[in-house]
Amino acid sequence: MDLATVIGLGGGLVVVFIGIFLGGGDIGAFINLPSVFITFGGAVGATIVSFPMETLSKVPKILRVAFFPQKMSPTDVITLMVQYAQKARREGLLALEEEAQQAGDDFLQKGIQLVVDGTDPELVRNILEVELIFLEERHKTGRSVFEMMASVCPAFGMIGTLIGLIQMLGRLNDPSTVGPAMAVALLTTFYGAIGAYLIFTPLANKLKLRSSEEVLLKQVMIEGILSIQAGENPRIVEEKLKAFLEPKQRELAARQEVRFEESAVRRSA
To answer: Which of 103, 125, 133, 134 is nearest to 225 (CA)?
Structure first.
């Protein structure tokens, strides 16, 4: 689980309530079910109108992406590509088919299968890049659900405030109800701000980051697959793919490669 997401969401809510408590406020005064229903219920309704049910049914899976990082990192992919390049040099491209199936990544498996089938390198690149484009579009669609929630939450907060003000004005003959009614009216604006700027916008940003990370992985896979198909030296494949990494990640990849070589030597011994 991604601790940054959990700590950020949980910590943000805790800090808000600590601020309320230290300010001498009554926590119970900030809890109002009608305001919750107006703000979040309205936002959910507007989101349902905006997207097909097929997209909305994937929200739990999309939300999981924000809380759980990818199993493979770019350095893992580079190490894997180098291993494939070494195996292809020793045993030929056909030996990679079984290896790709064990990797558990459909994109990688598809690319390797195209290479094994003798597909033209340019066609392999085109097929994989088209799939990558549609992958980004799917990510964008999933992320837009949370962006929509973030955009409409403050609006429904204001709607709830207007409803509260209308109700308050209808009871002006009883001055004792004006203060409490005004407090309830403003709570929907409070909920709208919390929902938009502490929950939904950060989640949308985290999903955008996750999408960028996955796209980077796929780009590394594409270049690695094409390099293997071209029969390039495994060391050249490694150096080429390291160009996708930041300097610190390159050092990590180098250490992983050293550990892999040492384990290979021990196995051969």
So the answer is: 125
Tell me how far apart the alpha carbons of residues 101 and 108 are, in angstroms, rounded to a whole number: 9
> Could you tell me if 24 and 45 lie in one domain?
no
Could you report the per-residue pLDDT of 202-236, keeping only the tens digit for each? 999 999 988 888 888 899 899 998 998 888 888 88
| Tokens encoding 225 | 């697959």
Pair (25, 53) in one structural domain: no
7 and 52 both lie in a single domain: no
Q: 130 falls in which pLDDT band (50, 70, 90)? A: very high
DSSP conformation class of 25: -
Contacts of 244 (CB under 8 A, 6+ apart): 74, 216, 219, 220, 223
- Mean pLDDT, range 26-49, rounded to an integer: 87
Which of 155, 139, 135 lies closest to 206 in space, CA to CA?
139
Count of domains observed in the chain:
2
Rounded to an integer, what distance in angstroms lies between the CA atom of residue 8 and that of residue 158?
26
3-state helix, strand, coil in the chain (%, to 5): 85, 0, 15
Residues 8 and 39 in one domain: no
Q: Kindly report, residue by residue over 148-186, the tens digit of the pLDDT.
A: 999 999 999 999 888 888 877 877 777 776 777 777 778
Domain identity same for 129 and 10: no
Q: Which domain holds residue 223?
A: 34-268
Is this prediction's pTM over 0.85? Answer: no
Give residue 109's identity as a one-letter amino acid code.
Q
Distances (CA, A) of 139 to 61, 69, 152, 182, 221: 12, 15, 21, 41, 19
